[in-house]
Amino acid sequence: MANELTDKAFWANYWESKKGLAFKVPANYTFHKLLKNIVDEQHPESAVELGGFPGYYAIFLKKYFGLKTTLFDFYVHQKVLKEVLVANELTEKDIDVIEGDLFNFQPKEKYDLVLSCGLIEHFNDTKDIIARHLTFLKPGGTLFITLPNFTGVNGWVQRKYDMDNYEKHNISSMNPRALAQYCRELGLKDVTAGYYGKFSVWLENRDEQSGFAKAFLKGIWLVGKVATKIVPVESRRLSPYIVLKATL
To answer: Residue 183: phi, psi to the nearest 5?
Structure first.
């Protein structure tokens, strides 16, 4: 079985079909508190975002913390990248960009912080794709990985309304306990893994849904938001993300 659940053609079509990609990355961007804690505690000077096109987190870390950042992906749409950089008052000189295959690339540079957000769940061998991150990481550096949680309500929404997208994800990778164990087996320290965030659901193909489906999904979203505001718990059923952090 091939390790990758997607290919370059999938991502080319994906990015060319997306609208509104060129926005100003805000200071309160998703996971901003967690990344600020890493910066405050570990004081990284350099970071690489793997599989992160169009580089929102590389941009975030550059803009708000002054890190020397690199974007690595096996597909980079140059027109989209330039538009996103311009929207954030940056140029191609501000963010290093490497277009390459993670499975046959040997990095010439190591980084204090290696992060990926929404990458590892697109591969069948979860431990192997985590190990690929470590080739970029300096000794003592921090690994930060996030992925969506499709094992709860949001996963039901994906299966019901966008099975094609659901099947592009390795659902078995969405297990914090297993992720933590893989990291320990790979020699990482200070490993933490868990569900993250208050309730949310989304659909990549929302614009294609019927009016009834959109209204139903909005109802689910509102009920979940109210419930987690009353009882602000992070759990497998309700949290939209999983976060993994460790040091080498």
So the answer is: -65, -45
Beta strands in the chain (DSSP E): 46-50, 68-73, 96-99, 111-117, 137-148, 189-196, 241-247
How far is Cα 219 from Cα 11, in angstroms, rounded to an integer? 31
First to last CA, the chain: 30
d(CA 23, CA 192): 31
Q: Structure tokens of 140?
A: 């003592």
Tell me how far apart the alpha carbons of residues 32 and 45 are, in angstroms, rounded to a whole number. 17
pTM of the model: 0.91
The span from the CA of 50 to the CA of 164, in Å, is: 24
CB 38 within 8 A of CB 142: yes
SS3 199: coil
β strands within 61-162, DSSP E: 68-73, 96-99, 111-117, 137-148
Over residues 187-226, the pLDDT tens digits come to 999 999 999 999 999 988 888 899 988 899 999 989 988 8
Q: pLDDT per residue over 4-13, tens digit each?
A: 666 777 777 7
Distances (CA, A) of 91 to 20, 59, 82, 86, 142: 19, 11, 7, 6, 27
Between helix 56-65 and helix 32-42 the angle, nearest 10°, is: 50
Output Rg (C-alpha) for the chain, integer angstroms.
Answer: 18
Q: Could you identify the residue written with the tokens 């290093």? A: 96
